[in-house]
Amino acid sequence: MAKTALTLEAQRGRARQVFERLRAAYPDLRCTLDFNGPLELLIATILAAQCTDARVNIVTKNLFRKYRKPADYVNAPIEELQEDIRPCGFYRSKARSIVNTCAKLIDRFDGVVPGTIEELLSLDGVGRKTANVILGECFGMQGIIVDTHCTRINRRLGFTKHADPVKIERDLMKVWPEDHWTLFSHAMVFHGRAVCTARAPRCSQCPVADLCPFPSSKEGKRIAK
Ligand code: SF4
User: Does the Cβ of 176 fall within 6 Å of ligand 1?
Assistant: First the structure.
């Protein structure tokens, strides 16, 4: 029991060091989706599934000028909305998701994006990842955003062994500094794109290499060859 508590304490200390170093390495940490207010972020996160944030930002530049409130999405001809979001891919299912979400916003929340995780999860197309992005960015609440970068890097760092996002989030809630969950999540995206990439992580250039067990693991050594 005492050993477990000590280990957890050590993990917490290591996680804080990782965060501080990544924050220093990427001083402009932020959400890389462009938005103004929770509705725009909600729509942008739906569009971002299987699409790059850069492409979403190009599309939403015009989209957000044209569609300003939930009713605008619900009342638009579906073919027109599909065409407006087409470059983001999966445009038929994303358009359907946007319309269903906006219809629920109107029916249940007076057209306003709610500010609790339970209410957000009741909306179509909103999972824990999206809910935590919205809570963190728009409602000042700390949320861990478990995406592909977060999963990969935290498995390599040894903060979780799981692949299931809910279990990963639970593990990280125990070790990540609670006052920086949102910023730490953004750090994962920046670090995952720049250094800790999926296929060939650049461990020799990584600012947290001495805190990470991966380079000395079997897989890490194989990649380094
Ligand atoms: S040392 Fe390698 S595996 Fe660990 S975080 Fe850095 S790049 Fe990723």
Answer: no
